[in-house]
Amino acid sequence: MLIDFTMKNFKSFKDETTLSLETGERLSKFRESNTISVGKISLLKNLLIFGPNGSGKSNLLDGLKLMQTMVTQPPQTVNEKLIANNFKLDDKSWKKDVFFEVIFKRGVNIYKYSFAFNKTKITRETLAVLNKNNWKIYFSRENQKFDVKIANFSDVENRTNENRLFIFDAQLNNDKYAIDVFKWFSEDLIFVEDFTENDHISQMAEILKTPKLNNQFLKFLHFADFNINGLEVVEEPLSYFYFLDAIEKPKTRTKQVNRIYTKHKIYDNNGDVIGTKKFRLEEESRGTQKIFMIALAFLNAELNNNGKTILFDEFDDSLHLELSQAMVKIFNSQANQNQFIITTHELQLLDSDVRVDQIYLVQKDFQGKSNLISIFDFKDTKNTTRSGISYMKRYIQGRFGATPIIDSDEMLEALTQIQSGSGEIQDGEVKKGKTF
C-alpha cells in the first residue's frame, strides 16, 4: 500500500509536496474502520482532496500517474523525449528537474523509490529498502554513473539508456526487489478514469462472466437505486489502428474485447413487462458508467489479494450526493482492505464519517503555485475529539483556505460587456472603457 507520494517541479506544484497516507498522531476516531495496519505502520484507507477549480487537484494525481507510466512503459529509443512538465510560471523552474518519490509496502518489504529527470534523461534514481528503522540503499544512479548492489549487473551502464529507468531493466533480469517495485506500479496502483473501451476495462469486465459475481454486482446496483435488471459480458471484435513506422500509413488490426451490456425491462401501455432491451454500457448515463467503474475497481481489488491503491479524479462528477456519501462510507468500512484516494468538489463529503487526517486541501497562490494542505495541521482540528463539528462549515468560512473567490455580479458584467465592447484587462485587472 502507498505510504507517501512526493513530487517537486511538476505542473503547478513548484515546491516539494508530499501526500501522506500515514495516520495522524494520537488520533483514535474511526480507527477500527478507517485505518489499516501494515506491519508497524498505520495507514488511512481513504483520502479526500478538495479545492477550487484550477487549484491543481488533478495535477497531484497526474504526477503519480506519470511516475507509473515511466516505470511500466519505458522509452523504446534513446532519442525519445520524456514528459518533463515543469512548473512554468517563473524564470528558473523550466531549467530544473522534475522529481518523484514513493514510499510503499508490498509483501514484507517497505520500499522508497525515487527519480529525477528532464526532457532528455534520467538524472537521479534510487531504490532503498527499509531494514529495521534504517533505509538501506539497494541501487542509486547519478546520470549514467551507477552504484548497484546486484551481482549480475556488472555491465549496467551498457544496459540502461540515459532516458530509461534502471528499475525496468532490473526487473527484466529477474531481480526480486525490482520486480516488487514494478508489480506495485503495474498491479497495485490503479487509476479509475471515465469509461472508455480499452484493455483495462475489458480485463475488469471479465469478473462479470462469473454468475455469482454477476449477481453480486447486480445486487449492488439495485441497492444503489439503479434500474438495471441484468448484466451481460460479450466478447466482440474491436478494430484499432497501429503504425509500423513514422512514414507508413496506419494499418488496422482487430482484437477480441469484453463489452458490458445492461438489460432493462420493456413495458407496454398498461405497464406490463413484455421483454427486455440490451444497451452497451457506453449508451448509459455518465453516472451509471462512473458507478460501474468504481464498483468494478473495488471488486477487482478484492479478488486480487486486496492491498491496492485506487485513485479517482473528480470522484463525484455525475454522481448523486447520497451515492457519493455511500461510496465514501464503503471505502472506510472495516470490510475494505484497500486504499481509495479521491479528488472532489462535493463539500458535503467533508462531514462524512472521516477523520481529520483524511482531508487534504489544494489551493493556488497568486504566483500560480499549488499548495497541498492537510487540515490535520490546523491547531483547532488536531486536538478536537468531540463530534458534531462541521468541517464543511469551517471550510466555507475560509478557516482552512483553498476556497474559490467568486463574484457573480462581476462575472455577469464581464459577459454582458462583450456586447458593448467595454472593459479590458491590464496586468490582471479589469479597466473599464467607453461604451459604444
Give a structural overview.
This protein has 436 residues and is of the alpha+beta class. It folds into two domains: 2-190 and 347-381, no CATH class; 197-291, no CATH class. The chain has helices at residues 31-34, 57-72, 156-159, 166-172, 176-188, 199-205, 211-223, 286-303, 321-331, 379-382, 391-396, 408-420; strands at 2-8, 17-20, 35-38, 41-44, 46-50, 98-106, 109-117, 122-131, 134-142, 145-148, 189-192, 230-242, 251-267, 273-280, 309-312, 339-344, 359-364, 370-374, 424-426, 429-431. The longest helix has 18 residues, at 286-303. The chain is globular. It starts with a strand and ends in a 5-residue tail after the last strand.
In short:
With 436 residues, the protein is an alpha+beta fold.
Features of this protein?
31% strand, alpha+beta, single chain, 20 strands, 436 residues, 2 domains
Give the helix/strand layout:
Layout lengths: L1 E7 L8 E4 L10 H4 E4 L2 E4 L1 E5 L6 H16 L25 E9 L2 E9 L4 E10 L2 E9 L2 E4 L7 H4 L6 H7 L3 H13 E4 L6 H7 L5 H13 L6 E13 L8 E17 L5 E8 L5 H18 L5 E4 L8 H11 L7 E6 L14 E6 L5 E5 L4 H4 L8 H6 L11 H13 L3 E3 L2 E3 L5
Parallel strand pairs: 5-16, 5-17, 11-15, 15-16
Antiparallel strand pairs: 1-2, 1-6, 3-4, 6-7, 7-8, 8-9, 9-10, 12-13, 13-14, 17-18, 19-20
Helix pairs in contact: 4-5
Structural class: alpha+beta
Terminal CA distance: 63 Å
Q: How much helix is in the residues?
A: 25-40%
The average pLDDT score comes to 84
Largest sheet at a glance?
7 strands, antiparallel
What is the strand content?
Answer: 25-35%
Which descriptor suits the 3D outline?
globular
The domain count comes to: 2
Tally of contiguous helical segments: 12
Q: Within the largest sheet, what's the order of strands?
A: 2-1-6-7-8-9-10
Q: What Rg is obtained from the alpha carbons, in whole angstroms?
A: 25 Å
